[in-house]
Design the sequence.
């Protein structure tokens, strides 16, 4: 990703609060991330929380996740792109983003995630959300779309989770949900945060 794309994202966050970019990163990198995401040994059932106490509730979400760490390889390349975006957003919008956290997310067939916000209004934790999809072979019949809403509950966009698509949005402004998927669905969810680790 280059400065022009960082600028495009920044402008969209100011204008509408979100952006969807197809073919955002190099296909070779996407394929390597997808391959890496298929090693499910360390995945855990994802929890939900509106406090610091997370708990598993499979009636609200059914994905499993594995946190990304620097690896001097493909993961580090993705995190380098993210860190470049963090620095650009801080320079341009003075958001005070202190770090980025991200995890692989897998939705098995039948998986879903009910409508939710990534951050509560006024909380200085998750400020900007990123979603990056890894399944390059995805058709409409596979379903599993993400729906974005405004704060009044009106549907804004229905996003097909096709590999290479990047979604970036303000974490406290856009409720969203993942519809039931008919195919195993791989992605990276990440958050730029303004708090300290």
Sequence:
């Amino acid at each position: 990703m280059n400065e022009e794309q960082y600028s495009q994202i920044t402008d969209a966050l100011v204008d509408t609060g979100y952006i969807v970019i197809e073919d955002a990163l190099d296909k070779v990198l996407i394929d390597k991330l997808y391959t890496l995401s298929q090693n499910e040994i360390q995945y855990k059932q994802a929890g939900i929380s509106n406090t610091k106490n997370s708990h598993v509730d499979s009636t609200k979400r059914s994905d499993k996740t594995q946190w990304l760490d620097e690896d001097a390889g493909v993961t580090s390349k993705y995190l380098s792109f993210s860190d470049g975006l963090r620095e650009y957003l801080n320079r341009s919008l003075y958001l005070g983003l202190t770090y980025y956290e991200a995890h692989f997310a897998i939705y098995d067939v039948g998986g879903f995630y009910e409508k939710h916000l990534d951050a509560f209004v006024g909380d200085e934790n998750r400020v900007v959300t990123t979603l990056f999809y890894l399944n390059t072979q995805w058709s409409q019949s596979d379903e599993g779309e993400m729906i974005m809403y405004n704060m009044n509950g009106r549907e804004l966009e229905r996003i097909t989770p096709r590999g290479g698509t990047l979604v970036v949005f303000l974490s406290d402004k856009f409720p969203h949900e993942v519809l039931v998927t008919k195919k195993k669905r791989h992605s990276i969810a990440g958050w730029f945060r303004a708090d300290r680790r």
About this structure: The radius of gyration is 16 Å. The domain at 3-47+59-193 is CATH 2.60.120.620 (Jelly Rolls). The chain has a mean pLDDT of 92. The longest strand covers residues 99-107.
